[in-house]
Fold these 3 entries.
Entry 1:
Amino acid sequence: MNWKKYKKHPQFILEDRTWPNNTIDKAPIWCSVDLRDGNQALPVPMSVEKKLRMFNLLKKIGFKEIEVAFPSASNTDFRFVRRIIEGFLNDDITIQVLTQSREHLIRRTFESLEGAKQAIVHLYNSTSEQQRRIVFKKDKPEIIDIAVEGTKLIKQLSQNCDTDIRFEYSPESFTGTEMDFALEICERVLDIWQPTPEKKAIINLPATVEMTTPNVYADQIEWFCRNISCRDSVIISVHTHNDRGTGVAATELAMLAGADRVEGTLFGNGERTGNLDIITVALNLFSQGIDPELDISDINSIIKTYEECTDLKVHERHPYAGQLVFTAFSGSHQDAINKGFRYLREQKPEYWDVPYLPIDPTDIGRQYEAIIRINSQSGKGGVAFIMEHEFGYILPKEMHPEFGVMIKQKSDETGRELSPDEIMDVFRENYLNATGPYKLVDYRIESRSESVTISARIYKNNELLEISGKGNGPISAFFDALKGASASKYRFEAYSEHALSSGADAEAVAYIQLANGGGKSVFGVGKDRNTTTASFEAIICALNRAVAGNN
């Protein structure tokens, strides 16, 4: 790889920067550019109907500013703006339209806005040293003239129309523009527009191509905010791309540095590696206890509409939205998540507090059932989580290793992930449907003040036996009775039970741990509407499993 063909981009350094000591404590002004910047980057641009679906989705999420089109670029975009204005535009929504600084394009843009209550006209021209030198072959004064003439025309047209026009200017490729020149051209534009604190102009400072680490962009934003002459009359907006994979970081640091407004798209769709992903930044705020001022509570429906409109797929590992981001395969992760949920149930803390899960999946419409998935890398804690949350079986902690080994072996055999139903099949085969020499037929219990006596009939190797025993409870009495059926080598270790559901006809499930004289233990599981019967079936299950395993 010939790395010598590249040179480091010039670094802008702000020696007395203050943004590292700042914190984000509120959401920015959001502006979606899905319908313009995002749409132009699609292999197959959205049809008008798909754009309308996307527009309605953006309204539902809560965007108040939406860049809808470059109306002078095509008749399709022009008609789309007209259709929105004539039937889909709420009074609290401000549409934004983009135009280059060319007279006929600006005039066509204003034609598209007829009848709108309010709109943002977004003017841009390229200002970077590279674009001036290679693309436009113009010097700085000529580039300033382009911006100035466009601003003059927009101001003139806005004074003669019924639409309340707000003005936005972008020195495109801001990150590749000398800072003093970026400031100069913006000042010249603002001198013409004459914004006020009551009617602010938007200065959008785009990382059109991401060239440096995010801290450099933050330095540029802080420097610009300090030096612009009418800061109280200007909304500083940022529009980052993701060429270096740090678009989200650049935006968040720019917010620390003073940016008031953020442009981006759902899930980061855009040219090359994409625009800023607004969903990620909004949920980053949410995870810190800050109101994102966007409704992302049903992320599944947002993904569905987005994918149908754009024909793009949200990656399985996409932050917050991917199908696997709330999923743990690693055994240690699964165990920690399982313990985290138990901690929530038992301690009921004020704040969300589960390892590996920065937010509660249910807050964005996801379900706990899919959090832990099982393959050969999974651990006993994850298997126990599936059994509890999918099927209601709260396995004793001491049983986790035994059942976990069974699932790991099954996954190794199949060479793939196991579904919850497949895990339940293993549980059913090894416990609930376990067969062997012992089988309970029926029993009778007599209780006295200090002891319980049981008489039972069981099969052992197809031979019907009458057994009896005494104990301080039904389980100990039944276990005592089994000693006469060649079960004396086993020692009763532990017992637990719980209801599988609520209600009068709920089934009970019991877990019994037996140990032989050599210290090896085995678990049995029984299920019945009668708690005592479930316990006896668990003991029979454990005995059969011990015999089958030569324990």
Note: The mean pLDDT is 92.
Entry 2:
Amino acid sequence: MTHQHPELADEQAYIDYAYECLESSRVAAWRLRELTEADLGGTYQARFERNAFDEALIKRLTDLDLGDAALVFGRIDRTGELPDSLETFHIGRLAVADEDSEPVVVDWRAPVAEPFYRATGRDAMGLVRRRHFAVEGQSLVGIEDELFGVGHLGLGHDEGLDEGDQSGPDDSSGLRGYSTLLAALERGRTGTLGDIVATIQGEQDEIIRSPQQGVLVVQGGPGTGKTVVALHRAAYLLYTHRFPLEDQGVLVIGPNRVFLRYIERVLPSLGEAGIEQVVLADLVPGVQFLRASEDVPGEPYADSPTAARVKGDVRMSDLIDQAIRTRQRALRSKLVLPFRSGYVRLDVAESERIVKAARRRFRRHNSGRKFIENELWRALAESYFDPEVGPGLVKDALRGTPEIREALGWMWPVLTPAELLHDLFGSKALLKLAAQGVFDESAALALFRPRSETVDDVRWTSADAALLDDARDVLGPKLGKDGKIDELDEIRTYGQIVIDEVQDLTPMQLRMATRRSLSGAMTIVGDLAQATGPLAPRDWEDVLAHLPDRRPPRVIGLSVGYRIPGQIMELANKVMAVATPSLRAPQSVRVGDVGPLIVRAESYQQLGVTVAFEVQSMMESLPNGSLGIIAPDSMIPDLSEHLTAAGINHGTATTTGLDKGVTLVPVSVIKGLELDGVVVVEPARIVSDTEHGMRSLYVALTRPTQRLTVVHAAELPPPLR
């Protein structure tokens, strides 16, 4: 930009005024909170209302704390109600009003702000001008104008434009605020994902503001912004449907903890800090799971590829049902117990009748236990010669005896999901019995693992989470001492569920997510070309078959790649053409400074040294950038030693996230992340070590925003030669 926009000073003054109003709101909120804190007495109702008011104030204070995020990032001018009049609205991260309650900044999610994202040359939506701000902290450093209806109201096409920023609504790029967008894309990464609220494009905004109901599928290739679009949609829906969504809850499910750490700042930066962000294992209480570095094939206790496929198969639900049914059984022999001057008895046939009656009456296993107990006491009482003896007297006399406990435990044990699966997976006989008519014997035995001493010692795999959840649904919660169900032990449902990298979820995991949907409203995002899970879907129908179907699903595609430079995307597309030839790659809008570099190490022994050298070279080229070394999981420890020997301070994604300037990232957790510079190590091993290796390589190659280097000792896979 060679000259200053003539309205820069005026807009800076307006932004300063907006921050003053924001600070006034914050001060007023603190004063209100101090008043409520000073009054600690009163009735229970008064204290309850005061606490609720205090929680609302705390949320408001949290919303008002923007940190380094820009408050205002744009402005729209539209035709007013009077002839030749204009209405002006400044668009920002949250709504701000002055002391007279007049709007100073309009929340980006408000209906009046929609033209800021959606207006085009063909449909101006009433706009005369759209203005984009380039902001650093509270300082306005640049303005980009787009004019609609050139000459309208005396606005010339070039009036007030920074030189080089004359891309209007009909610009050939097809992008809104092209210069502002490119500046944002080329800004260095910080180790956590940033929001795109200032640069949302039209096709992205269509998804964000799409109706809440039903399942919305977003197919997007690498760099299309599908993750941030999904998160912005969550924030938009919560703003638009504050009641009832705030009470119903919004749930975001990510593929792993590295990813959750990477996206953790997006929603708070948009003023929505109360949305739950989890991996599926977080939804299973009371058990321990393997760490990500342990939950890979070949590690002790981890699933074999066969076991992972079987555990993800939707038929596992039938296997679990049968495993529970095998624990609902008649006595093996007659139960005879001394009582008073005689005996009480329960024969095998009567015990079978009781079990069958419980099966008919109760859908959930644990709910039937009370019925079994009552029927047992009734049958024992009826077997006694004195008709005056009722079930209560027999119960009082015998309920503590080992024989009764053993009989009840055999006929209808009270089970937790962990207890059920611990018993099942630790017994080949139980596995064969439960798998009859569901899986063949070899598939069932792939689930076998040596039994731990106690169920509390078991460390479960990520694939087990969906099985534990399925068992939890069928078993139901244990009954309390009062005979009632603990509602806190029930599976919680949510008004809106967002799932990222959904293409890697198995049918059982998809059912687990569906179980938590209150009304069938979901936003699922992913890319079939990046599907590397044990049961990778062929098309979206394979995924939708296991999701809510109360309304017809909608599938929307993101076609533009914003993050990845064209030269890098061109190389990655050669891999994609082999991995998923039926899918189209996104069209990149950026051209990088340099193309990808492929470096061959002299030998396998020199591979680590070569990687360290290339990392140092990239650090010099991108001194303030975030760099990642993507490698097969098994190579990470050795590469770490070489980086340390070369004096390169670095972290590992599974322990430090992307907080370090240089990070080693196992290929198993790279999905969804982005870095300024990437070194991909030994593509042939990436391809050979994973089930969908070519897709894993495609994912690895599409992580950088600026530079890519491929280092190898073995022969390159054919698409890269």
Note: Confidence is low (pLDDT under 50) at residues 156-167.
Entry 3:
Amino acid sequence: MDRNSITGVVLIIVVLIGFAFFNQPSEEEIRAAKHRQDSIALAEKRTQELVKIKTDSARFVQADTTISTDSLTDSLKENNFKQLYGDFASAAKGEDKSITLENNLLKLHISSKGGKISYVELKDYKTWDGKPLVLNNGDSSVFSFNFFSDNRVVRTNDLFWTLPANGIKVSEKDSGSVSVKLEAGEGRYIEYVYSLKGNDYRVGLKVNFVNLNNLVAANAGYMELDWTQKLLQQEKSHKNESAVSTAYYRFTDEEVDHLSETKDDASELKTKVQWVGFKQQYFSSVLIAEKSFESPTKISSKIMADQGAVRYMAANFTIPYNHSSMESTDLSFYFGPNHYQTLKKYHIGMEKLVPLGWGIFGWVNRYAVIPIFNFLNSFNINYGIIILILTLVIKLALLPLTYKSYMSTAKMKVLQPEIAELQGKFKEEPMKLQQEMMTLYRKAGVNPLGGCLPMLLQMPILIAMFRFFPASIELRQKGFLWAHDLSTYDSILDLPFNIPFYGDHVSLFTILMTVSTIIYTRLNQQMTAATNPSMKYVMYLMPIMFLGIFNNYSAGLSYYYFLANMITFGQTYFFKLFVDEKAIHARIQENKKKQVKKSKFQERLEKMAKERGVKR
């Protein structure tokens, strides 16, 4: 080989080595791949065991036909249990019973089947139709540790646990705990220690693995924890509740994120996670790790068409296991309302379960709207009155901007005859028209965007309120006037059919909001310069769209926008009383006589016109 060939071969080897080095998987990717392989192995092992049991059972029946049916059944069961569960075989049969844990806020049932919390009732709340509010019941949830033991797959959710004789009931500042165990013989067991405080939605769970180091497969460095829950329907509108229900999670770097709210979604989280929450419209179930869950954590959310449930949620966690004689994992559950102050007091970011909006919209809600709302709520007055006062406070705070917008619009109205004259004079010369109009605005001291900018500054509050009312559990089942529940739509007429884009009912607050918005649009057109005929009717399209969109939304939100429009009408009326348009016109004429320095924009516009051959 000549020197060039040798150089080429060496370069190829260097490139291959570099490619292999830079593309080697990280430790997290290796761990995730091993996690997937072990999961597949678990499933395959389970299938093989079931096939073997069926085969052995058939052989056993053929080999001994003298055994009685009952004896044969019992023997087969014992044989099957032993083959399936090994040292946990004694826990494969038992009676499904439960004990009760109760405090001022929660009523829980701990089931002997799986040792899990099988029933959760929030005592201070009811469903939309007045029934006890139950987050999960019976088989609507799974909580299971999965691992290999003696070449067998053990799922703790399938086995029977030993319960204490009685449950506990705590009140006020008291606390209590109970222990349930999954026995594996000879002092070997898994223990769940549930703890409860008197006035707390959080339930402690300490998981102890005692003397299992010789039972769990030696090559297993972790256990899997499956947590699934069918989210039962709690609110009147299945569609609305489903549209805001999904899985939330918080990474250890304090970032909170969630799966899609509008479709089925799933994700594999490849960094440590502090908590995962199954969120509904106004309530959530959250599983929290004291020291974070190891990666990977797999979560999924699936929409359910069943009217009795809105979503099927699933999470799979990785729990480290070091093969010590005594190992513990500290977890806890939160079963409770999506109430901002309640969630915030835990200091782990769960208040993000309340969707207040991103960026500036969330800031407006957190630091302005919520404090004012809570202050008014402390006076124990009707929520319809609270919304009225809140609207007045917000409109009062925005009054300077509203006044500035009105004055700018009034100036433009006064200039309308001169603008119309220019439009007629230079209708064939768009660049010249633009130049002359800018000159007119400059001499008159009028900013053509002066009416828009104050309105844009008000937009964050309008959008913030759009997020605040549908997320406010305080409005849930609180009535005002004809609305029985301000958190959902008000209906004065239920239709026997469904109208596309509108719904199967008539919301009066939405109609009032829509009519007032149309009137507001009409007044704006009368105040401003002549509108392009093609745009004149487009301005009415948005209110009509609101009629369809808001018909299924929170009545509190429609009521707020209606009040805001009515207060704006009142402000406009008073502005007209105290603002003299003749005086404005006289001032503008005086301004036009003054020598005004050209703005940079005006200079650039004139330069462009000159380059295009437009003469002054």
Note: The first strand starts at residue 98 and ends at 102.
